[in-house]
Each structure stands twice: as C-alpha cells, then as structure tokens.
Amino acid sequence: MKKVLGIILGGGAGTRLYPLTKLRAKPAVPLAGKYRLIDIPVSNCINSEIYKIYVLTQFNSASLNRHIARAYSFSGFTDGFVEVLAAQQTAENPSWFQGTADAVRQYLWLFQEWDIDEYLILSGDHLYRMDYRKFVQRHRETGADITLSVVPIDEKRASDFGLMKIDDTGRVVDFSEKPKGDALKKMQVDTTTLGLDAEQAKKSPYIASMGIYVFKRDVMMKLLNQFPDQTDFGKEILPGAADDHNIQAYLFDDYWEDIGTIEAFYNANLALTRQPQPPFSFYDEKAPIYTRARYLPPTKLLDSRVTESIIGEGCILKQCRITNSVLGIRSRIEAGCTIEDALIMGADFYEPFAERQSGLQEGGVPLGIGEETTIRRAIIDKNARIGRHVQIINKDRVEEAEREDEGFFIRNGIVVVLKNAKITDGTII
C-alpha cells in the first residue's frame, strides 16, 4: 500500500448538517461520545496500511486542523502523515473548491510529487469500517482505470442514491442520479456478479455508489486536466469516462451509513447503543477507530440509572436517569435530570467549582445540564449551558424551526442546541 495516496474530501459548507457545522468543518463534527467524523476514514486508511493521507476542506477548518495535529503524528521513521489542505487562491485557481473533482484538481500539483500508482478518494461523512487493501487489490486484478466501491440497495431506498449498471464482468456501463419510476427499473442489475448470493441479490437488485474511488494515477491526471469545467466526480467525471475507460464496481456488503444530514447523524449515533449488537461497533481490536488521546479521568456516576447508553470519559452524573442516549466527554448532568433518546456532545473543558457556584448565585447558567431538566429526542452541542427545570422535548411537535437567537434549531423534529448556547432556567422548547 506504499504506492497508494489517500485523499479525503472534507465536503463543502456542510449545510445538511447545519447547525453542527456552524463553527466547525463537517469532518470535525463529534461522533459517538469521543470521536470525530474524520476519524473514520483516517482509521480505515491506517488499518489498511495507507499512511499518506491528505484531507481537503474549505470551511471552518480550525478545529479540524487542531484535531488532526493532536491525533495523528507518525514517527520520524516513516514518511506517513495526515495533513489538511484548505482551499487557497492561486494565479491558476483564483476561486474556492467548486466540487469534489475541482478540489482534487486544485491540488494536483502536490499529489503529483509523490511516487505512487493509485489515488484513493474518500468521503469525510460516512460511518463504516473497510479494508481498503481488498478494494485496491480488486482494482489491480481487474486492470481497471477506476474502481468504485458500491453497496447493494433495495428498491425502497434506491431512488435516494446515484445508481450504476454493470455488465457480467463487473464493468460499469451506465450511471443514473436518483432515478424514479421506469428509469429506476432500468437500473436493476444482477448483483450475484459482484459476489452476493441469489437470495441477497433478489432483495437488493440495485447498486449505489459510496463516493469512494480508486484511480490509476495517470487516468486521474488526464481526466481532471482534459475536462477543466467538470467539477464533480460522481455527476460528471465518472459518467463521462465510462465509455472509453474500464470502470469497475467493487461490492462492499457491510454496514455503511451516509451521516451527512441531521436525522441520519442522530439515528446513527443512537443506533450505537442498541443491544445485543449495534449495526456498527467501535469494539474491534483488529481494526480500531483512532482519535485524539485526552487522558481524562474515569466517568463518575452518583446514584444514577443508565439504560442502553454510551457514556464518554470524564463525565459526572448525579442522581439522574439516562435512557438510550450518547453522552460525550466531560458531560455534566445534575440531580433530577431525565435524558432520553438524546445525543449530548459534552464539553471541551471543566468549569471550576468556585466558578459554577458564583455563576449560580448571580443567576448565571453553569456548563452542562442543570437540575430537574428533561431532554428528549435532541442533540446538545458542545459547551452548551442548559439551566435548571428546562424541558427540551419539542412540546409542539415542530418539524423545522430556526431560533438561532434563542440558541437552538429544529431539524426533522430533532431539537439541536447550538455549541456554546445558553438556555436559561425554566425554558420549555
């Protein structure tokens, strides 16, 4: 894998994940109590022995830079690195990244400096565990110019994805973006060609792109230089190259979730609490998910009841009830609280005891969740200050709302409290 360069696309403004992306790049959004989205593709690369990794981003990249600098430092005895490349203006490219292909095109001069054979293009907002060695091996064995990783999809979900059609050798011969009706029926394929058994193939007669590609070095250079107006891999570059290039499909038949929307992100996090077997597990010793080492103290629970939940490191829980929830690092939950079906992202620091007490006496709101507060079906971003006797329950069953001045949004019926927000005592949302 020394001849493979990993390129992770950090995405644009992250509008689908807003307001979680208000103050941070999409790959820096916290995940599962202690990780960040970027940890998934970076860890998959490291576990696949791919150690040269670039991350392309252009929005709010300060926290992403900080996380990567603190989490991924290879020894001086290897040429491995994880490096953020932010959008920049040059004489040749005076504008920002216009799409996935354009982002890679603007840094081609840098990628060309490495003596490698393949470029592995990855996305920064997916949850999955994959051995890229098998992916690259399939690419090499078939002599492909480009190989796409695909997932089998049933008819119910197929029209939400970009679909592909393959011939009996696994070569991609047609693309269709979110087809419906007769156009959808035409995209059915025999997925036994890619390794599914007959029963699975019948249930999932479509294949959808995961947005993960392996390019031969020269092929990517040629395509990006030949078509300077094409800015997106999935919608323009790949469909345009299908006729005169060997584009192969590689089947990934395991858990994969695009968590680029608030609802998908919320559901994927809470699914981690499922028993006996969550759809994705962080408990795999052979392929661990890495993140920044913080050296936090163990979590302290004082007379609390916790059911089917994940509690991060360094938390303090006092006489509260936590059900089907994920609590991030340094979460502080005071007495009498009820937390159900919620994602609490925790805090970046501890508030000293004296500060908390003086803040309470002066009518302020300390860091964390105050006494006798109820939170249901909500995401509480980092460093939020939730007062006492607050109810975050979406009382009026609102589907969409933007109350930025009050410190929260509602997306798909899920209340999202902003990072650093302050919700005063007795508030009902």
Structural notes for this entry:
The chain has 429 residues and is of the alpha/beta class. The chain is built from twelve helices and 29 strands. The termini are far apart.
The largest β sheet comes out as: 10 strands, mixed
Q: Helicity range of the residues?
A: 10-25%
Shape: globular
Cα(first) to Cα(last) distance is 51 Å
Spans with pLDDT under 50 lasting ≥5 residues? Answer: none
Strand content: 25-35%
Average of the residue pLDDT scores: 91
Structural class: alpha/beta
- What's the gyration radius in Å? 23 Å
Secondary structure tally, helices: 12
Please provide the count of β strands.
29
Characteristics of this structure?
alpha/beta, 9-stranded mixed sheet, 28% strand, single chain, 10-stranded mixed sheet, 429 residues, 21% helix
How are the SSEs ordered, and which strands pair?
Elements: E1 4-9, E2 30-31, E3 35-36, H1 39-47, E4 52-57, H2 62-71, E5 81-86, H3 100-106, H4 108-111, E6 118-123, E7 126-128, H5 132-141, E8 146-153, H6 155-158, E9 162-166, E10 172-177, H7 182-185, H8 198-203, E11 206-216, H9 217-226, H10 233-241, E12 247-251, E13 256-258, H11 262-271, E14 300-302, E15 305-307, E16 310-311, E17 316-318, E18 321-323, E19 326-327, E20 332-333, E21 338-344, H12 353-361, E22 368-369, E23 374-380, E24 385-386, E25 391-392, E26 401-403, E27 408-411, E28 414-417, E29 422-423
Parallel strand pairs: 1-4, 1-6, 4-5, 8-12, 14-17, 15-18, 16-19, 17-20, 18-21, 19-21, 21-23, 22-24, 23-25, 23-28, 24-29
Antiparallel strand pairs: 2-3, 6-11, 7-13, 8-11, 9-10, 9-11, 26-27, 27-28
